[in-house]
Structure formats: structure tokens, C-alpha cells
């Protein structure tokens, strides 16, 4: 486990979401102050929906210059953007539309292309955004599956061995579907990485990723170890329940 990781454990999911929202706001304002914009790669799945809705709520919407925030995706399901499974659609409904985010600030994966082409184009989109600078997001938001996957880095998939900092297509056998994901090397270049994990169904995965012997094929989230950035885990008590006492 990365020694630099910081655990933030709260009694309820609501407190976890509030803590992460405060952290998001702090990072955003810091990045905007330092270099004019804030770049964030969003996580998919169901867990972040409430988080996005919180950011768009009256309590938070006035605390950031949203016109200076640029949104990317840590992974995307290979479905049209209108599909209920689409990570883009979830973010659009919960975050972009309520905050009236301009389309120029949203960098989505083009799922109309073939999977490999979509990944290659997304890599180019990211590289163009950063220009001559290192590809380094200010923040990458991640979730954790009960099988210890994060983004679309699933157990026993070829993408786990990827050494390039890029977007990559991956066929997920258990889903019988393609995904497009940022690779671990690209995620690990971020200024900050934050996991949002809550619920008792995630407790075993949290314990394996944070305390088990390194085995990236079984526990892919162990790959996440920012080279020179921060790593934070925002957990509720139920998700942290199987961690040793010294970690809680």
C-alpha cells in the first residue's frame, strides 16, 4: 500500500460525501488560483451520483468558479451517451446540466468510434488539453468495485500491465462489454487521487486493497499510487469495517 495514502473515515455516507465535496472545493480553488483552471477526471458507476448532486446543490454551487473547471472521465462504458449505463449521462444529469457547464469544458469519450479508436482519440484529446505540459490532472476521482476494480481496471485484464500513460480500451469478460479507461500510469501522474467508497458491500474490497499483499491481478486498485501526488480514501464506517484497528 502507498505510504502516502490518507484515510478519512466517517460514520455515515452523508458525512463522507460532505468531506469529499469540501476537499474538491479546496483543490479546485487552489488550482484556479495557481494556474487559472481546475482539471478533474470523474468516476463512473452509482456511488458518485449523490456526490455530483451535492456539488450542484445550493450549499456548494457558489463556492467554485465553475466556468474554470474542466471535466474528463476516468473511464466510460462503451455505450451511447444517451444510454442509462453511460457515465457521461450520469454526470450530465447530476452535475453538468444543474451547474450549466459549457460543453467546451466537458471532454467525453467518443463512444461512436470503435473501442480502440475511441481510446486513441481520448488519449489525443487529453494530450492536446495539456499541450507541452505533463499530462497531470489536478484531481482524479475513483470508486471501488466489490471485486477490487477501480476505473475500468478489472481483475485479470491486459490493461493492468499497461505501462503507457494513456486511455485504453478493455474488454471486460464479466460484463461482456468494452470499456474505455485511463491507465494506472496516467492516473498516478495526478496531483491528487481520491477514492469515494461507502457501504458494507465494499468492506472486503477495501480491506484487500489496503492491507493484503500486493496482487494487482486480483486487486487492481492496488495499482493506484500517485508518483508525487496525494492519495486519499474517503470511507464510511461500514466500508472501513474490516480494516485493522490501527488503520481506522
List the helices and strands and how they pair.
Elements: E1 5-10, H1 13-35, E2 38-42, H2 48-55, E3 69-73, E4 75-77, H3 87-99, H4 115-130, E5 139-142, E6 167-172, E7 177-182, H5 184-187, E8 192-197, H6 203-211, E9 230-236
Parallel strand pairs: 1-9, 2-3, 2-5, 5-8, 8-9
Antiparallel strand pairs: 4-7, 6-7
Helix pairs in contact: 1-2, 2-3
Could you explain how this protein is built, in words?
With 248 residues, the chain is α/β, with parallel strands linked by helices. It has a single domain, classed as Rossmann fold (3-Layer(aba) Sandwich). It is built from six helices and nine strands, in the order βαβαββααβββαβαβ. It has helices at residues 13-35, 48-55, 87-99, 115-130, 184-187, 203-211; strands at residues 5-10, 38-42, 69-73, 75-77, 139-142, 167-172, 177-182, 192-197, 230-236. α1 packs across α2 and α2 runs parallel beside α3 (87-99).
